[in-house]
Amino acid sequence: VNPTINGVAQSGYTGFKNHIINGGFDVWQRGTYFSPTTGAQYFSDRWYLDTTGSSGLVRRVTDQYTSISGASNAIGININGASSVQFRTPLENPEKMQNKTFTLSFYVRGAVATQFEYVGIIFRDGVNSQISRLSGVKTISTSYNRVSFTFDVGDLSSLDMAQTNRNATVVFRIPNGLTTEIFLTNIQLEEGSVATPFEQRPYGLELSLCQRYYEVQDTPTMGLSNYNSWANESQGRIPWKVAKRVPPTVSGYTVHNGNLIASGFGVYSAYFAMNWTSGNSASISGYLLADAEIY
C-alpha cells in the first residue's frame, strides 16, 4: 500500500495513474537517433513530431538526470528552424476523460532559455471535429524544472465517439524557427488537480504497452509449412507479442525461395502464403515492423 499525504500518493509505483505511455522515454523500438522529415513521424515509442521543413534531430539522452528522481532517459528535440512544430502523443478512449479534471506535468530544459507556445490536450474524433484544452506560454529555462498545467475537460458530446481513431492528443507546441535543443522527460497526465510524483512502471510493462501500437518482430529465416505441394505452395502464421490496437500495416520482411501470393495482418498475428520456386519450401526473414499507431 502506498503512503499518502493529503491524499497524494508518495511512491512512484501507484498503478496506472499516468495515462501517458512511455512518458519517461525508456522505450525506443525504432532507434535512438533521427533526422526528422516534414509531416508526422514517430521516434521514441508513442511520441511523434509533426512539422514542416524540419532538418534537425531527435535523440535519446541518457546522462543529465542527477536532479530528477527516477529519470533515466529523456528526449532531445532540435527542429533547426522548422515551422508548425508540434510534439505529440495520442491516447485512446477520450470519452473516459469527459467532465473530469486532469493535470499534465513534465520536466523540461533548453540548451538556451526559450518557451513552448502552449501545452495541453486536443480531443479529436478522427474525422473533422476537435476540442482543445491548452495553456498559455510555458517558459523553458536552461536547468530542469517541473512544469504543470491543470484543466477541466468538460463536455465532449460534440465528438463522434464511434470513430476507431478517436483520441486525446497531448501536445507541446514548439515556436517556429527555434534553433536550439529542448529536453523533456517524466511526462505525466493524471486525473485530479495535483501533480503527484511521476509513476515509474517496470520496463517490460512499458514495452508491452507500447507494442499494442508498434512492434518489431524478428523473423530469422522462418520456413513456412507446405499446404498444397502439387502447386508448390507454403503458408505460415506469426503471432504478435501483444495484440494490436487495429490490424497493423507491416513492412521490413524479405521473401526467400518463392513469391508472395497472399498475406493478412490482423490484431493477433501475421499470415503469409507463397508459392516456392526452388527447393521444397518458401521462407521469410528480416523484421516484421507492425504499425498500429494513431496519427
What does this protein look like?
The chain is mostly beta strands and 295 residues long. It has one helix at 203-211; strands spanning 4-5, 8-9, 33-34, 39-42, 48-52, 57-61, 74-78, 83-91, 101-110, 114-116, 118-124, 130-134, 138-140, 145-152, 167-174, 182-191, 214-218, 222-223, 225-228, 233-239, 249-256, 258-265, 269-276, 283-291. The longest helix has 9 residues, at 203-211.
Number of helices: 1
Radius of gyration: 22 Å
SSE succession: EEEEEEEEEEEEEEEEHEEEEEEEE
The stretches of 5 or more residues where confidence is low (pLDDT under 50) are: 1-13
Approximate shape? globular
- Largest sheet descriptor: 6 strands, antiparallel
Mean pLDDT: 88
Terminal-residue CA separation: 38 Å
**What is the beta-strand fraction?**
over 45%
* Structural class by sheet pairing and helices: mainly beta
Sequence of strands across the biggest β-sheet: 3-6-7-16-9-14
Provide the helix percentage. Answer: under 10%
Number of strands: 24
Present the secondary structure layout.
Blueprint: E1 4-5, E2 8-9, E3 33-34, E4 39-42, E5 48-52, E6 57-61, E7 74-78, E8 83-91, E9 101-110, E10 114-116, E11 118-124, E12 130-134, E13 138-140, E14 145-152, E15 167-174, E16 182-191, H1 203-211, E17 214-218, E18 222-223, E19 225-228, E20 233-239, E21 249-256, E22 258-265, E23 269-276, E24 283-291
